[in-house]
Specification:
Elements lengths: L13 E9 L5 E9 L2 E12 L3 E6 L5 E9 L4 E5 L2 E3 L7 H13 L1 E13 L8 E12 L11 H4 L1 E6 H9 L6 H18 L4
Parallel strand pairs: 4-9
Antiparallel strand pairs: 1-2, 2-3, 4-7, 5-6, 5-10, 8-9
Helix pairs in contact: 3-4
């Protein structure tokens, strides 16, 4: 029997909003003054990083290898093993369409088969970012990057093919710490396990 517990949309009263920061990037930070519906007189502030959302692509070939990128991330001071990904910075764009674009731009790949794996909030206590994760299969080489030019950290990134099983082991033993990669690999593993059915 399925539990009745689940996420649900809810909005507590907002009494005031202050724009803390906005810049050229598609992000901004605001401070909302809110209250609990049960205690309307008690008001308190909450910071919100407004984020357009993102898409992540787990591209798996016929040999069960995934295309990964290694890219420097300055805030963490790390060069992470990651998956092709990007912001949903085109208003109203479908995440799968964005995923197709990112796979072409970053990995020079196209995919004939697309499966939605999961959609998650990366840090809901602070950010509105929603990450849509897709599995891309039936891969082929893209003719070009569609006019996209790699710059800065992207110009320095490298691409590799890694067995999905190795990525899963690396997530579990701490060798791969990028959260979107971990989520995608574990979701893919669980989906394959469910499709294969019980064994033994």
């Amino acid at each position: 029997m399925r539990s009745e517990v689940g996420d649900r949309a809810e909005q507590w009263p907002v009494h005031d909003t202050e724009l803390v920061w906005a810049g050229a990037a598609p992000f901004s930070v605001r401070r909302d003054l809110i209250s609990s519906p049960d205690e309307p007189a008690e008001r308190f502030g909450r910071l919100v990083l407004e984020h357009p959302g993102a898409v992540v692509v787990l591209a798996v070939d016929a040999e069960e290898r995934a295309l990964v990128l290694q890219q420097y991330r300055h805030p963490a001071g790390m060069r992470f093993v990651e998956l092709p990904a990007g912001l949903l910075d085109v208003v109203g764009e479908d995440p799968e369409v964005a995923g197709r674009r990112e796979l072409r731009e970053e990995a020079l790949l196209e995919a004939a088969s697309w499966t939605h794996l999961m959609t998650t909030y990366s840090s809901p206590g602070l950010s509105s970012e929603r990450i849509s994760t897709y599995l891309a299969r039936d891969l082929s080489a893209a003719p070009d990057r569609g006019g996209f030019e790699l710059q800065h950290e992207e110009a320095d990134m490298t691409t590799h093919w890694v067995p999905v099983a190795e990525l899963l082991d690396g997530v579990l033993d701490g060798r791969f710490a990028d959260a979107p990669l971990a989520h995608a690999v574990m979701a893919y593993h669980l989906r394959r396990k469910a499709e294969d059915g019980p064994t033994g």
